[in-house]
Specification:
- This protein has 257 residues and is of the alpha+beta class.
- The chain has helices spanning 9-32, 39-53, 125-143, 151-165; strands at residues 56-57, 76-79, 82-84, 98-107, 110-119, 175-177, 184-188, 205-208, 211-213, 219-221, 228-230, 236-238, 241-246, 249-252.
- The protein is built from 4 helices and 14 strands.
- The strands form 4 sheets. It has a 5-stranded antiparallel β-sheet with strand order 7-6-8-13-14. Strands 1, 2, 4 and 5 form a 4-stranded antiparallel β-sheet that branches.
- The structure holds magnesium ion.
- Residues 102, 104, 113, 115, 207, 209, 240 line the site of magnesium ion (MG).
Amino acid sequence: VPVIELRTPAEIEEMRPAGKFVASVLTAVRDAATVGTNLLELDRIAHQMIKDAGAESCYIDYHPSFGGSPFGKVICTSVNDAVLHGLPFDYVIKDGDLVSIDFAANVNGWVSDSAVSFVVGTARPADLRLIEATEVALEAGIKAAVLGNKLGDISAAIGDVARDYGYTVNMDFGGHGVGREMHGDPHVPNDGRPGRGYALREGLVVAIEPWFLETTDRIFTDKDGWTLRSADGSRGAHSEHTVAITADGPIILTARD
Ligand code: MG
């Protein structure tokens, strides 16, 4: 039975620092990711920011049933055919790499979760299109995160954008409730039927996170036990924000400047 927790307006205000912090780390990591940067250096930058802010990593000790061992790093770095849960390793970013960074942290007892994808150096048009699709889908999902709608409206909005761009949606991993913990109910699939499912309520806080692969919807787990890669070697992109549903509309807690 899903347990869906709702936050008061005061609690949503308390969640803002975590959102701002997560946004600032993604901006810093993105700025640091140039041709020649090691993924481990990106993790080190985020780790230092966590220490300086007195924040807490949601990833470093994370060890769910599908993970081979505790994650051990503070960001996910998914490059090219990797799309989710990328375990940072000794890899130097090359010109044209498509990099997805996912980051969640706890500040003052509240979690925020966000992800961004970008190309380092010279971009292939197909990669920019794939990234754009996840961003447009995220925007559409957020726009549907309003009172009077149902969870299926968020999912359908995301799935419709995927279809418009010609991508297929993998339903194994999607968005989720966010609060005291990184993952809570409800699950927010990246496709679904409009008008179906849980009726959105004031105070629901969810991570909305469309991710698409260029020419497949199938993934496999790398031998590192974490990194999820496309089955056919095509590239993936991922965009995510933590969003509070309020009477005044959705608030993007992890909005970047
Ligand atoms: Mg995330």
